[in-house]
Amino acid sequence: AKKMRDSGIKVKDVSEFTGFPEMLDGRVKTLHPKVHGGILAQKGNPDHLRQMKEHGLQAIDIVAVNLYAFDKATADPNCTLAHAIENIDIGGPTMLRAAAKNFQDVTVIVDPADYPVVIAEIKEHGNTTLKTRFRLCAKVFALTSKYDTAISAWLDKVDVDKNPYFA
Asked: Looking at residue 150, what is its pLDDT?
Protein backbone atom coordinates (compact mmCIF):
# COMPACT_ATOMS: atom_id res chain seq x y z
CA ALA A 1 0.00 0.00 0.00
CA LYS A 2 2.84 2.39 0.83
CA LYS A 3 4.39 2.12 -2.64
CA MET A 4 1.04 2.89 -4.28
CA ARG A 5 0.30 5.78 -1.89
CA ASP A 6 3.77 7.21 -2.44
CA SER A 7 3.05 7.19 -6.19
CA GLY A 8 -0.12 9.23 -5.69
CA ILE A 9 -2.58 6.35 -6.15
CA LYS A 10 -5.57 6.36 -3.81
CA VAL A 11 -5.42 3.39 -1.43
CA LYS A 12 -7.79 2.18 1.28
CA ASP A 13 -6.84 -0.38 3.88
CA VAL A 14 -9.29 -3.28 4.28
CA SER A 15 -10.61 -2.34 7.74
CA GLU A 16 -11.29 1.20 6.51
CA PHE A 17 -13.01 -0.15 3.38
CA THR A 18 -15.26 -2.62 5.22
CA GLY A 19 -15.80 -0.56 8.37
CA PHE A 20 -15.10 -3.80 10.22
CA PRO A 21 -12.00 -4.49 12.35
CA GLU A 22 -9.70 -7.50 12.17
CA MET A 23 -10.87 -10.26 14.46
CA LEU A 24 -9.94 -13.72 15.76
CA ASP A 25 -6.27 -12.80 16.14
CA GLY A 26 -6.10 -11.56 12.56
CA ARG A 27 -7.70 -14.67 11.08
CA VAL A 28 -10.59 -12.60 9.71
CA LYS A 29 -9.61 -9.43 7.89
CA THR A 30 -10.57 -9.67 4.25
CA LEU A 31 -13.26 -12.36 4.26
CA HIS A 32 -16.12 -9.90 3.82
CA PRO A 33 -18.85 -9.39 1.18
CA LYS A 34 -17.79 -5.76 0.70
CA VAL A 35 -14.34 -6.98 -0.28
CA HIS A 36 -15.26 -9.92 -2.46
CA GLY A 37 -18.31 -8.24 -3.99
CA GLY A 38 -16.13 -5.26 -4.87
CA ILE A 39 -13.50 -7.51 -6.42
CA LEU A 40 -15.74 -9.93 -8.31
CA ALA A 41 -18.31 -7.47 -9.69
CA GLN A 42 -18.11 -7.12 -13.45
CA LYS A 43 -18.31 -3.42 -14.27
CA GLY A 44 -19.88 -4.13 -17.66
CA ASN A 45 -22.69 -6.23 -16.18
CA PRO A 46 -25.77 -4.08 -15.40
CA ASP A 47 -27.12 -6.70 -12.99
CA HIS A 48 -23.86 -6.69 -11.03
CA LEU A 49 -23.91 -2.88 -10.90
CA ARG A 50 -27.53 -2.90 -9.70
CA GLN A 51 -26.72 -5.42 -6.96
CA MET A 52 -23.67 -3.43 -5.89
CA LYS A 53 -25.77 -0.28 -5.57
CA GLU A 54 -28.53 -2.19 -3.76
CA HIS A 55 -26.06 -3.50 -1.17
CA GLY A 56 -23.86 -0.41 -0.91
CA LEU A 57 -20.80 -2.07 -2.42
CA GLN A 58 -17.92 -0.23 -4.07
CA ALA A 59 -15.85 -1.58 -6.94
CA ILE A 60 -12.26 -2.52 -6.15
CA ASP A 61 -9.85 -1.72 -8.97
CA ILE A 62 -6.54 -2.98 -7.56
CA VAL A 63 -5.71 -5.85 -5.23
CA ALA A 64 -2.13 -6.07 -3.95
CA VAL A 65 -1.34 -8.88 -1.53
CA ASN A 66 1.78 -10.26 0.12
CA LEU A 67 0.94 -13.72 1.41
CA TYR A 68 1.94 -14.94 4.86
CA ALA A 69 5.45 -16.35 4.60
CA PHE A 70 4.58 -20.02 5.10
CA ASP A 71 7.87 -21.21 3.59
CA LYS A 72 9.87 -18.92 5.86
CA ALA A 73 7.95 -19.98 8.97
CA THR A 74 8.29 -23.68 8.21
CA ALA A 75 11.95 -23.48 7.17
CA ASP A 76 12.81 -23.49 10.87
CA PRO A 77 13.31 -27.16 11.83
CA ASN A 78 11.70 -26.37 15.20
CA CYS A 79 8.52 -25.04 13.60
CA THR A 80 5.50 -26.47 15.39
CA LEU A 81 2.33 -27.56 13.66
CA ALA A 82 0.42 -24.78 15.44
CA HIS A 83 2.90 -22.17 14.18
CA ALA A 84 2.73 -23.54 10.66
CA ILE A 85 -1.07 -23.48 10.70
CA GLU A 86 -1.11 -19.85 11.85
CA ASN A 87 1.10 -19.01 8.87
CA ILE A 88 -1.36 -20.37 6.33
CA ASP A 89 -2.90 -17.35 4.63
CA ILE A 90 -6.59 -17.76 3.85
CA GLY A 91 -7.86 -14.28 2.99
CA GLY A 92 -4.86 -13.33 0.85
CA PRO A 93 -5.14 -16.20 -1.63
CA THR A 94 -8.91 -15.81 -1.66
CA MET A 95 -8.66 -12.15 -2.64
CA LEU A 96 -5.94 -12.88 -5.16
CA ARG A 97 -7.90 -15.63 -6.87
CA ALA A 98 -11.06 -13.50 -6.95
CA ALA A 99 -9.16 -10.56 -8.46
CA ALA A 100 -7.42 -12.78 -10.99
CA LYS A 101 -10.74 -14.33 -12.00
CA ASN A 102 -12.02 -10.81 -12.69
CA PHE A 103 -8.88 -9.59 -14.49
CA GLN A 104 -11.11 -7.84 -17.01
CA ASP A 105 -11.86 -5.23 -14.34
CA VAL A 106 -9.30 -5.70 -11.56
CA THR A 107 -5.52 -5.31 -11.45
CA VAL A 108 -3.93 -7.84 -9.12
CA ILE A 109 -0.36 -7.57 -7.87
CA VAL A 110 1.64 -10.31 -6.14
CA ASP A 111 5.14 -9.33 -7.23
CA PRO A 112 6.68 -6.04 -6.07
CA ALA A 113 8.59 -5.95 -9.37
CA ASP A 114 5.24 -5.25 -11.07
CA TYR A 115 4.53 -2.02 -9.17
CA PRO A 116 6.46 0.23 -11.59
CA VAL A 117 4.55 -1.11 -14.63
CA VAL A 118 1.20 -0.83 -12.88
CA ILE A 119 1.92 2.68 -11.62
CA ALA A 120 3.19 3.85 -15.02
CA GLU A 121 0.13 2.49 -16.84
CA ILE A 122 -2.27 4.04 -14.34
CA LYS A 123 -0.54 7.40 -14.63
CA GLU A 124 -0.50 7.22 -18.44
CA HIS A 125 -3.91 5.65 -19.16
CA GLY A 126 -5.90 5.95 -15.93
CA ASN A 127 -5.84 2.16 -15.60
CA THR A 128 -3.72 -0.83 -16.46
CA THR A 129 -4.14 -2.44 -19.86
CA LEU A 130 -6.13 -5.63 -20.30
CA LYS A 131 -2.93 -7.40 -21.42
CA THR A 132 -1.13 -6.37 -18.25
CA ARG A 133 -4.06 -7.43 -16.10
CA PHE A 134 -4.07 -10.84 -17.80
CA ARG A 135 -0.32 -11.30 -17.30
CA LEU A 136 -0.73 -10.40 -13.64
CA CYS A 137 -3.67 -12.82 -13.39
CA ALA A 138 -1.45 -15.66 -14.62
CA LYS A 139 1.15 -14.77 -11.95
CA VAL A 140 -1.53 -15.08 -9.28
CA PHE A 141 -2.50 -18.62 -10.20
CA ALA A 142 1.16 -19.65 -10.44
CA LEU A 143 1.81 -18.19 -6.98
CA THR A 144 -1.27 -19.61 -5.27
CA SER A 145 -0.58 -23.02 -6.77
CA LYS A 146 3.00 -22.91 -5.48
CA TYR A 147 1.77 -21.65 -2.09
CA ASP A 148 -0.77 -24.46 -1.72
CA THR A 149 1.79 -27.03 -2.86
CA ALA A 150 4.24 -25.83 -0.19
CA ILE A 151 1.56 -26.13 2.50
CA SER A 152 0.51 -29.58 1.33
CA ALA A 153 4.12 -30.80 1.15
CA TRP A 154 4.88 -29.58 4.67
CA LEU A 155 1.70 -31.06 6.14
CA ASP A 156 2.38 -34.38 4.40
CA LYS A 157 5.63 -34.65 6.39
CA VAL A 158 3.85 -34.33 9.75
CA ASP A 159 3.85 -37.69 11.52
CA VAL A 160 0.58 -37.67 13.45
CA ASP A 161 1.76 -40.66 15.50
CA LYS A 162 4.83 -38.79 16.78
CA ASN A 163 3.87 -35.11 16.67
CA PRO A 164 3.11 -33.72 20.17
CA TYR A 165 0.17 -31.75 18.75
CA PHE A 166 -1.76 -35.03 18.50
CA ALA A 167 -0.68 -36.41 21.89
From this structure: 96
